[in-house]
Design goal:
Blueprint: E1 9-13, H1 18-28, E2 33-34, H2 38-41, E3 46-50, E4 53-59, E5 72-74, H3 78-87, E6 101-107, E7 113-119
Parallel strand pairs: 1-4, 5-7
Antiparallel strand pairs: 2-3, 3-4, 6-7
Amino acid sequence: MRVVAIDHVQLAMPEGREVDARRFYSELLGIPEAPKPPHLAKRGGCWFERGALKVHLGVEKAFQPAKKAHPAFIVENLPALKATLAAAGFPAREDEPLEGYDRCYVDDPFGNRLELMEPNSSP
């Protein structure tokens, strides 16, 4: 027996903030919204999926953002994405270099930490 893959990442969000989730994850990050099954949709939250990339946001009554734990997304054109996010009020934070990647952190509208990584050709 072994774990073979991750199906999706779930992040928490506060109740009633689906519009903010859609703007950030779909419009700014470019991950299309996917319909939730009806029995789960009644709980609130949103799902965003493109192929194997699946980010689910679930409502948590006593919500607290994840400040350390985070998903890391591989992105294309990190400088352009950082500029888009900053213009929308989500400035990126730089961190220690990681060999083989340009990267930064950004918080989603709820304060959850996300890592954005783009492979580079540095040795």
